[in-house]
Every structure is written in structure tokens, then in C-alpha cells.
Amino acid sequence: MTASQVSLALIQQHTLFQDVPIEALRQILENGQVIRLSEGDTVFRQGDTASRFYVLLQGNLKIAQTTPSGEQVTVRHVNPGEIFGIARAMQRTTFPATSIVMRESLILSWPNNYWDTLLKLNPRFAQSTFETVGQRLQDAHSRIRELSTDEVEQRVAKALLRMVKDSGVNTTDGIEIGYPVTRQDIAELTGTTLHTVSRLLSNWKTKGLVISGRRRITITSIDGLQALINDPDQPNT
Amino acid sequence: MTASQVSLALIQQHTLFQDVPIEALRQILENGQVIRLSEGDTVFRQGDTASRFYVLLQGNLKIAQTTPSGEQVTVRHVNPGEIFGIARAMQRTTFPATSIVMRESLILSWPNNYWDTLLKLNPRFAQSTFETVGQRLQDAHSRIRELSTDEVEQRVAKALLRMVKDSGVNTTDGIEIGYPVTRQDIAELTGTTLHTVSRLLSNWKTKGLVISGRRRITITSIDGLQALINDPDQPNT
DNA sequence: CGTCCCGTTGATCCCTATCAAATGTAGTGG
DNA sequence: CCACTACATTTGATAGGGATCAACGGGACG
Hints:
The structure is a homodimer of 237-residue chains.
Chain A: H1 3-13, H2 22-31, E1 33-37, E2 42-44, E3 52-66, E4 72-78, E5 83-84, E6 98-111, H3 115-121, H4 124-149, H5 152-167, E7 168-170, E8 175-177, H6 183-190, H7 194-207, E9 210-213, E10 216-219, H8 222-230
Antiparallel strand pairs in A: 1-6, 2-6, 3-4, 3-5, 3-6, 7-8, 8-10, 9-10
Helix pairs in contact in A: 1-2, 5-6, 5-8, 6-7
The first copy, chain A, binds a DNA duplex (30 and 30 nucleotides) through residues 151-152, 182-184, 192-196, 198-199, 201-202, 212-215.
């Protein structure tokens, strides 16, 4: 099986490319480029000239911004089937953030000038992309609201719930986040420090809500975490 | 001059409708509806069924989300010429936020089913809207970064600078924000409390950076505020 | 088996929310 | 025109959530 054939099987699974005739799909793939990247690699960096646009076929990425002082903030996660790095379609010449591979990923990309052709071959693409960006805008607004009004404990709980929702895998103990996560990662995602995240996880472990080891987190009680969000000042058992 | 003629003059000024033939513009206006709203009015409320989409012709709005506990968070401001309330174009059935009039405003709107017609009459509309949403997404990401890493003082300074940039009017003292702003408004915009904002403004007043009265803020030293952002731990003079 | 990460936990400090109360300002109706 | 009222602002006092500083423990990998 060639790389192209593997990609064909993968791309068909994603709603973004459903209803596209197999011949058009083949053509779309031939004009694109598939790369496999490992954990820690970057697809593009903040400030790079935006010459291509991307779809994540498999794996997980995070999109992060680096502040002038060097701190990193995770702006969002990218899940399989999602389009990303579409700066050019928004008339930007450079990428506003860096995309970092969280676990081995398969990435499909095209040069910017293929955008119009792609729209013709896949008419749903335009509307779908628009909806995706709209959805992201709403997610971003939700996070602004959370950062403005929630306490750290609730923000971290919400972040964990989102991660298991997007990429959870069932285990005998509960649902495990499907990629490596450090305390630092969660801190960058929730606007806090790795120390505070560590304390929270320790606390939750004693309450039986999570099991966590080095770069691994398993939620044993979704409801327990949910309760922390609903009743912020629950008495500590 | 009829309401329609007033609107025609206004709509032509905005880049969103430039290059649209006058006849098409007339037709677009006839199918739309113009309303004038006063300070404190709402155009639509969070949770309302999204049956129309809007363009702000004149005035200023804020888009706010109410948290389950009743606090309000300002998600963004809307300036003249901007499209807003396009939930339906993103396949949402309800509005995710409330739009509140900050000063008397003129608002143009169409029923959702006019969207496709509008696209035909104004081909640039689709791309323009896409870019607008993309820009907003980036603005939202910037705010996430700020809320995650900046101290309150820097966030408030940035908020003031944005407001004067968007809607500043020159006065003999400096640049005044062109609509009424309370300490509470700024607090909702920056994720802090009105007390902290009041203390900051008092402090800045003694430093000669701002002049502020009841619901009025004038920046006397843009550079001074900018310095607070660049050098977070400037010695207090 | 040593080294590099990652995680844990204690101690301390400080920014900012919260609580509280007084003062100031625009608008309104008699 | 003034008193009344509603709302905005200011400022003090206090408390507390988390950041910061510091040190140690532990598992993975070369």
C-alpha cells in the first residue's frame, strides 16, 4: 500500500471529504503532500511565511503562541480531520502561532494556490471551512469567558473533560487522554502554573476522580469532575 | 431624505460594500431593515433564535456573554461597518451572546434567507466575511494569551489603547473614547473588577496618562500607556 | 547506572478580589 | 431652581487564591 493509498483510506473517514467522488479525492491527494511527524516536531512556526494549508489526518497537535517574554500559551488543540494553518485564506501572510505535534501525526498539505481548485473539486469545502472557523471563534469566546470568571480548579477540570471528550480512550480504570500530557501542558492550556495543576491532580487523585502518572492522565469519574464545575464551592470530602 | 437614502450614504462608506453597483446597493437596502437603537438597548439576546443577520452602520455595540452565575463578560466590540450576529451562517440556530448598544446606533439587518442573494449581489461579501471572522478569531486568541499571561494593569492598558484606536476622537486634552465607558464596562472587558479598574485609572491620572470622569475617559499619553505594556515593572514615578 | 525530565510538596508572598462606606454627578420631577 | 434619586466613582481594610521560590523524589531512556 502506498502512502497515497493509506491517505485515501484516512481522508475518506473525515466528514470534511465525505461526498467527494473517489476520482476527485485521488486528484486532491496527488496535488497534496503527506508527511509524518513525531512528538515535539513543529509543522510551522509563529511568524513563518504561510505558503501552505493543512489537514490533520491522524494524531494530535496543539497550536501555541509564544509571548514576547517567552512564555507559551496553548491556543487550541487540533484533532484528526480538522483543517489548520489556513492563515493565507484569511489574507494573512504569516502564521500567527506555532503548531506542535503532541503524538505521532500524519499531515496532509497543499500549496496556497491549490485552495481555489480544491473549492471546485469539493464544493462543501468552503461552507465547511467557514463553519469550522465560526465554531473555533465560539470556542475561543468560551475560553475568554472561562479565563475571566472561572477559578483555576474549574478551568483545569473543563480542560480535562474536553481532552477526554475529543481524544479519550476507554481503559479498565476509566477514560484515558489519548496522547501524552504533562502538568506544564495543562498549565499552558488553562493559564496557570504546573505547580497548581500538580496540586489539583494530587487532590483529585485522593478523591478518586483521576489516576495520573508521568505524562498520562485517566479520568475515573467524569461526573466527579463535572460536579466541580457545577458547584464551585463543594465541601471537600 | 428617507431612511433608505440615509442608509445608502452610510453603507457606501464601508469597505464591505465598496465596489457594489449603486443599483445592487439599492436593492440590498430595500430587502433589509434599518433600525435605530439607543444606549442600553439590545439587538438580540443570548439564546434567541437567530433569524436575521446584521451590519452596524453607525454607533457602537458590545457583544457580551452572561455566565450561569449571572456575571457578564464582554466578548468583543462592534464598530461601524462590521457585520455581526451571523450565527445562522455558521449553522447555529441561536445567538451565543447578547449584543448591547453602547451609544445610539443605526443597524441594518436582513432575514437569514437573504444571505445567498446578498452573496450574489456582492461577490466580495463571502471572502470579506470569511476574513472578518478569521480576524476575530485571531483577536480572540490574542485575548486568551493576554488573560493567561498578562497582569491586570497591562490588560486594562491594552483595552484602553484598543478603544481609542477604534473609536477615539481628538480633543484638546488628548484622545477621548467615543462612547460612554464605565469602570464596570472595562472590568467586564478585561476580566477584573470595577474597583481594580478605578484604582488603576486613579493611579494613571496622577501620572498624567489619562483624564477620566463619569463614563468618560481621555488618554493624554498614548506612549505612557504603551510603556506600561512594554515594561511591566517600570518603577513608579 | 547515570542523567534528564517530570512530578510532588512545602513555605512564603503578593496581587487582586471582596467587603464596606463615603463622595460625586447627572437627571428628574415638583 | 432645588431636592431627590439613581447610578458611578473613589478609597480604605482585609483576606485569600495562586504564583513564586525552593528542594526533593521517581521513572524512563540512552
